[in-house]
Design a protein that fits this description.
By secondary structure, the chain is α/β, with parallel strands linked by helices. It contains ten helices and 18 strands.
């Protein structure tokens, strides 16, 4: 119990420094007051039918969001431009009717509309995606096939999407920072070499930290070929940080779940609670299929955001998203299930981050 409490405290320390940069004010030094950062909460929501097909064309009024069972008012609503149907078609018609220069004008920049309920509706055409590649000694046999699958995934991304390429073995290597120059990212993939032990959870924690300050849709795609045998942080802490920062985790594992039940359970847990998916690929064909599935998922997500209503809970807050109307109840929703409220009072140290950084700096 004591270990778990310390771990949660360390996660809060990391979250605080991500949001506040480690600064504190005179008001925050007052021990008699607890201040918290109440910011816009963003949810990336996948809606599918019983066959796993994506449901498109939904509107803000189709969603009901609660936080700790308190109803929330959606402030912004976004659907990908590639989803096959967009709620913004009426906006384009309105623009044309009111003298917009051309159809190109409507697509040259993100279109926004404030509906009668005060909700800002817009297209979401891009994403920030971090690819985290296992270059440990588990990868020797299938290294080239994995590089091919990752390269194809990066080429498939929308040109406006930014991609970063990281690799890990015992250390995390930030090979290429976020960029829309996908050719440069592919070159980074081709330059990787196999290493030694695998510190996946350390590396994933540091990658979530890099993604945390970013606005908009952000995701981490992990390619793993074996269990973690060198990390100093547990997967539960990575999962909580991803949830609390709104970062989606997708994991592709080349090991079958039955080969390593502990790792498989951790992979499924981390991805599920963040709103992502875990895939277990038997061969290079299934690896490519998994990457294609992730790409499809990213372009079919709805993105909702809200400012939390007054809530006395200063810890973990549970989020529920449901669809309104009987005709929509048959569909399935996938999104993160909560977040931890960030303290605005200074917390001591970055020992938690330092533990993960130990392998990053050796």
């Amino acid at each position: 119990m004591q270990k778990k409490s310390l771990t949660c405290f360390a996660v809060l320390s990391l979250l605080f420094f991500l949001e506040c940069g480690g600064t504190r004010t005179a008001a925050q030094d007052d021990p008699t007051h607890l201040r918290v950062n109440v910011v816009l909460v963003q949810l990336n929501v996948a809606v599918t039918d019983d066959k796993g097909n994506y449901v498109t064309g939904l509107h803000p009024e189709d969603f009901a969001v609660t936080e700790d069972k308190i109803p929330q008012k959606v402030s912004t609503f976004e659907e990908s431009i590639e989803s096959g149907h967009s709620p913004m078609e009426t906006v384009r018609k309105d623009q044309a009717a009111h003298g917009s220069n051309s159809a190109a004008d409507a697509d040259s920049s993100p279109i926004k509309q404030v509906d009668s309920a005060g909700i800002t509706i817009s297209h979401l055409t891009d994403a920030n995606v971090f690819v985290l590649f296992d270059t440990s000694n588990y990868m020797y046999r299938s290294f080239v096939f994995a590089q091919d699958a990752i390269a194809d995934f990066i080429r498939s991304m929308d040109e406006s999407s930014k991609v970063a390429f990281y690799s890990y073995s015992r250390n995390l290597s930030r090979a290429t920072s976020l960029t829309s120059d996908h050719f440069r990212i592919v070159n980074g993939v081709r330059s990787t070499v196999a290493g030694d032990d695998a510190a996946l959870y350390n590396s994933l924690l540091l990658t979530v930290k890099d993604a945390a300050p970013l606005k908009g849709r952000k995701a981490i795609v992990v390619f793993s070929n074996g269990p973690d045998n060198a990390s100093s942080v547990p997967p539960e802490d990575v999962a909580e940080l991803a949830q609390s920062t709104g970062t989606i985790i997708y994991i592709i594992s080349t090991r079958q779940a039955q080969d390593d039940p502990a790792s498989a359970a951790a992979f499924e847990r981390m991805s599920k609670v963040s709103g992502g998916k875990a895939y277990f690929a038997k061969n290079w064909r299934e690896e490519k299929q998994a990457f294609a599935s992730i790409r499809e998922d990213l372009v079919h997500l709805y993105t909702l955001s809200y400012y939390p209503q007054q809530n006395p809970n200063r810890g973990w807050r549970s989020i529920k998203v449901k669809l309104n109307g009987k005709e929509l109840q048959k569909y399935h929703i996938r999104t993160r299930d909560g977040y931890r409220l960030l303290p605005a009072t200074a917390l001591p140290g970055e020992e938690y981050t330092s533990r993960a950084n130990e392998t990053d700096s050796k």
